[in-house]
């Protein structure tokens, strides 16, 4: 018998545990639709804020060994404009659409989340963890009280699952996860990118226009696995793992560490959209070989050792 890959996470039922990570291809409705057709269990939009933002000047992305550094500066069309994109996506896709939102105060987050809900979002992901926009990733995401206020405000405003996406750029990620759980979050997403930098040795200049950016891809996977392991030990709500997942073996590692589902971002740039089907097929064969009937049975198995 084929193993069941469907999972329940934060009020959503997914056909399989793979999710498109925020910001990678989730910019337009068309792109979100093509990811949905490629086999993902759910898609996450680019982070959208209350007003349009241009983001930083180029260069905003640079490749490094084993990863990618980006400092986009949260460019987005603003919620008023994005609303139409989301409405269009919802007409064409039949998997959950998670709306990633950001703001500069708890009220901003809840205002944007309310419009996303009206436009048909199935869940809200709070980006309190952008590493290169000071007011979002640092002032809110590194402060358990502000994370708590933000989660509460959004939970009061919208009757959808609210996921809180955490930054690894803190002294104790578990403390922030506990604050989000206490405030009522329905799931924790771990992790956003890790602060990093690259300098051009010919010109002596930092390459990114914002100088410091966020590292993603294979280089951050062990940090993400450790974060998922520690957080899932400390909280009752489900954890969604994210960071450097490139193949099914990586995905299984996150599930064993305690993730109920996983998000894929940077790998799409190397592997294309086929990465979703490859990961799903690989997880299925792994379970079949081990005679495990449900993917949820392996979630957190590494904790028994
Ligand atoms: C180009 C780029 C843009 C991103 N934009 C967002 C964003 O808008 N919101 C967000 O929460 N995370 C954003 N991220 C972070 C990813 O969602 C993800 O947390 C991170 O890249 C780690 O996963 P990965 O190694 O699979 O890419 C972005 C990442 C990249 C590479």
Overall average residue pLDDT: 95
Going across the biggest sheet, name each strand in turn: 3-4-7-8-9-10-15-16
Largest sheet: 8 strands, parallel, barrel
Helix content: 25-40%
CA-based shape = globular
| CATH topology type | TIM Barrel
Could you explain the architecture of this structure?
The chain has 305 residues and is an alpha/beta fold. It has one domain: Aldolase class I (TIM Barrel), CATH 3.20.20.70. 37% of the residues lie in helices and 21% in strands. It has helices at residues 29-37, 79-92, 106-118, 134-140, 144-157, 173-182, 221-234, 248-257, 267-271, 274-289, and strands spanning 7-9, 12-14, 18-20, 42-44, 61-64, 67-70, 97-101, 123-127, 161-166, 187-190, 194-197, 199-200, 205-206, 212-216, 239-242, 259-264. The strands form four sheets. An eight-stranded parallel beta barrel has the order 3-4-7-8-9-10-15-16, surrounded by seven helices. A four-stranded antiparallel β-sheet has the order 5-6-14-11, with no helix packed on it. Strands 1-2 form a two-stranded antiparallel sheet. The longest helix has 16 residues, at 274-289. The two termini are 29 Å apart. The structure holds flavin mononucleotide. Flavin mononucleotide is lined by residues 21-24, 46-47, 61, 68, 70, 72, 100, 127, 165, 192-193, 216-217, 220, 242-245, 264-267.
């Amino acid at each position: 018998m084929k193993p069941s890959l469907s999972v329940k996470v934060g009020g959503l039922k997914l056909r399989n545990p793979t999710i498109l990570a925020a910001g990678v291809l989730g910019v337009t409705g068309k792109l979100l639709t093509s990811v949905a057709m490629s086999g993902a269990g759910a898609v996450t939009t680019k982070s959208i804020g209350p007003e349009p933002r241009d983001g930083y000047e180029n260069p905003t992305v640079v490749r490094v060994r084993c990863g990618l550094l980006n400092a986009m500066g949260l460019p987005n069309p603003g919620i008023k404009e994005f609303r139409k994109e989301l409405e269009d996506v919802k007409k064409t896709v039949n998997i959950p659409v998670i709306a990633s939102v950001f703001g500069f105060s708890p009220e901003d987050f809840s205002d944007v989340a309310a419009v996303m809900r009206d436009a048909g979002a199935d869940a809200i992901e709070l980006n309190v963890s952008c590493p290169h926009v000071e007011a979002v990733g640092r002032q809110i995401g590194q402060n358990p009280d502000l994370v708590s206020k933000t989660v509460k405000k959004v939970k009061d405003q919208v009757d959808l699952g609210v996921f809180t996406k955490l930054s690894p750029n803190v002294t104790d990620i578990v403390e922030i996860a506990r604050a989000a759980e206490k405030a009522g979050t329905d799931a924790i997403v771990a992790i956003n990118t890790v602060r990093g930098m690259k300098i051009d040795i010919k010109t002596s200049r930092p390459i990114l226009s914002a100088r410091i950016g966020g590292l993603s891809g294979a280089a951050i996977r062990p940090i993400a696995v450790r974060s998922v392991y520690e957080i899932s030990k400390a909280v009752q709500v489900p954890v969604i793992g994210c960071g450097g997942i490139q193949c099914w073996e990586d995905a299984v590692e996150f599930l064993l560490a305690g993730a109920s589902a996983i998000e894929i971002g940077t790998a799409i740039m190397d592997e294309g959209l086929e990465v979703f089907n490859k990961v799903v097929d690989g997880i299925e064969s792994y379970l079949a070989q081990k005679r495990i009937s449900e993917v949820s049975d392996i979630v957190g198995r590494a904790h028994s050792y």
